[in-house]
Amino acid sequence: IMTQEKAKKTRMEEIASPKGMRDILDKEYYAFQGFFEKASEVAIYYGFRPIETPILEREAVFTSSLGVGTDIRDKEMYSLKTKGGDHLAMRPEGTAAVMRAYLEHGMHTLPQPVMLYYYGPFFRHENPQRGRLRELRQFGLEILGTQKSIADALIIRSMTLILEEAGFKNISIEINSIGDKECRSGYIRELTAYYKKHLSEICTNCKERAKTNPLRLLDCKDAKCQGPKANAPTPLGSLCDDCRHHFKEVIEYLEEMSIPYRINGNLVRGLDYYTRTVFEIMDHTVNERGEIEPLAIASGGRYDLLARSLGSKKDVPAVGGGIGVDRVIMSPSHKMIDPRIIKKPKIYFIQLGAEAKLKSLGIIEIL
User: Fold this and answer.
1) Listed residue (167, 110, 162) closest to 322, CA to CA
2) Is residue 173 classed as helix, strand or coil in its secondary structure?
3) How many other CB atoms sit within 10 Å of the CB of residue 197?
4) How far is Cα 203 from Cα 50, in angstroms, rounded to an integer?
């Protein structure tokens, strides 16, 4: 009997869901669906329209756009080669796929800007942790075809409103500007020169980043790197006049809408296509130990360089953001939103006896 039980257990382990991926059942399923419906309602109110991109994309969509030295491209993508020889990837994020669709379907001929929203699973082969799985669900908003600062503010406002509708009362914005292709090169030279003097004080990964993707030095969470990072030059000091003016306008919009924010000079996004505005939305919920533990539940920024990396002959100024729905649902701040499919009963129907049971289904349909 013990041998049979052991064999059965081994068999179950062989067919169990993959690490970092899970089943979503019953009440939790409705929690995800309810959030998606509310988020879509807010997005539609502000003028966004739906899009759904394939889960499998050509690998080049991401290898061309995310940049050498980024964890998503170098370590986390699920890639495969088809029997026909195509190199595909399970989408690790939504922005590059949406820009690919914008270019492929000639959306530049539509009235600009084009405003899109989407929801679905994304895949990253990283170490699973609470609220950050290998199959993760995101709700995304993108505004393509405008460089106006009000688009940056509209993305942030829409996302904060969605989170407020989902029960989050203590959120704030961490925001920065990392400049554009004109002024960023000077900043990267300054940053690289600074870190060359501190190579012995930083982690192994950052020593590699200093060569391949210096901006990501500011994104490192390793305790060893926090000292050098605290004194590193920030992108704000190198902004050109246009970028400084754009950032000032974004901040003015946030203040006008009474959205709490903090300028974080070390905030960068880990992908090459970002320019100017970058932001994270933080939840300041009290944890089980009675401590306030800030947690990033959404993030985004402007990505004016993305279109050219995907083969466009012209720049397409754009801005967007994504909400990590797994983190939202798992947070103690989350308020369950019943999806429309769930209806509170108005009639109780009781049948007594075999003949009544035969008739019952037909009567239920009539009711």
Assistant:
1) 162
2) strand
3) 9
4) 42
Given a contact cutoff of 8 angstroms between Cβ atoms, the answer to whether 86 and 56 are in contact is no
Name the CA radius of gyration of the chain, rounded. 24
CA gap 366, 8 in Å, rounded: 47
Give which of 244, 221, 231 is closest to 294, Cα–Cα. 221
**Side chain identity, residue 208:** E
DSSP state of 34: H
Helices (DSSP H) in the chain: which residue ranges? 2-15, 26-45, 60-63, 71, 95-104, 149-165, 184-196, 204-212, 226-230, 241-256, 306-309, 325-330, 354-366
Q: How many CA atoms lie within 13 A of 141 on its CB side?
A: 30
Contact criterion met (CB below 8 Å) for 208 and 222 = no
CA distances (Å), 242 to each of 146, 154, 179, 247, 283, in order?
A: 15, 20, 9, 9, 31
Torsion of CA 147, 150, 151, 152, to 10 degrees: 90
Mean pLDDT of successive 10-residue stretches along the chain, which has 367 residues: 68 82 91 96 96 95 68 74 92 94 96 97 82 88 97 96 94 94 86 85 84 82 83 89 96 94 87 88 79 86 93 94 94 90 83 89 84
Q: How far apart are CA 226 and CA 266, in angstroms?
A: 11
Total-model pTM:
0.87
Cβ–Cβ < 8 Å for 306, 273: yes
Contact 279, 253 (CB under 8 A): no
Distance of CA 75 to the CA centre of its chain: 18
Instruction: Compute the distance between CA of residue 292 and CA of residue 304 in angstroms, rounded to an integer.
Output: 35
Length of the chain: 367
